[in-house]
Amino acid sequence: xxxxxxxxxxxxxxxxxxxxxxxxxxxxxxxxxxxxxxxxxxxxxxxxxxxxxxxxxxxxxxxxx
Length: 65
Fold this sequence. Notes:
This protein is an all-alpha fold. It contains 4 helices and no strands. Helix 2 packs across helix 3 (26-34). The relative contact order is 0.12.
């Protein structure tokens, strides 16, 4: 992971990242780096499923026998 992606991973404000990376438009920043944090995205999905399924969330990880 490089410095640019670290800024996204640290949840820095997109406008701050834009200024740091000298992007003319914040859209450039968002298109290039906001989608790069796959790990956080998967973690968020997991939390959502845990809330949705409650105590049945363990069923997603059990091996079917």
